[in-house]
Amino acid sequence: MRINLPTWLTLFRVALLPVMIVVFYLPFHGHNITAAVVFLLAAVTDWLDGFLARRLALTSAFGAFLDPVADKLMVAVTLFLLVESHPAGWSGVLMAVTAAIIVGREISVSALREWMAEIGMRATVKVAFIGKLKTVMQMVALVVLIVQHEKEAEALRLYHIGEALLVIAGVLTIWSGLYYLHAAWPTLRGDKPRLRPDEPQP
Question: What confidence score (pLDDT) does residue 13 get?
Fold first, then answer.
């Protein structure tokens, strides 16, 4: 199997995850800002690999599989880091609940898309604008929350800004999840016939 440039970028994004984890916990001055830079670099590769794949027609089955996996790993791992390091109290509860909603939505929508693809209806739940907006809001919120662990950043009150942005991302997550569920509901309810494996795919 020949790996093209967009797929190499996706693999690079996956490889950045353990780097971000190590940097996040290392006890040196500016470690959280460094972790945020690593996260931003991963986020940029997320946009770049898709852009190159479309612009240069460098799509592949492996790349199409790996790209959403890398995206969800990046978000889930970062949320786990933030929840684990978050202070206790109602703020910590809010963070944990929001993280659970985001991760739960990602798992649910991935399962929905897999099932719809199996019956030849994948296009019904293709990525919509609300899903893209949710992703952007998540990325901004996570960067702010990573940075806020620095004492200098805390003086700028980024802590509460990051929490608010993540809650907004959580609301968009629910909204986008319901959007995809609504799009797939006629098929889930049985209004549209399933395609057999030997039938042409739409």
Answer: 92
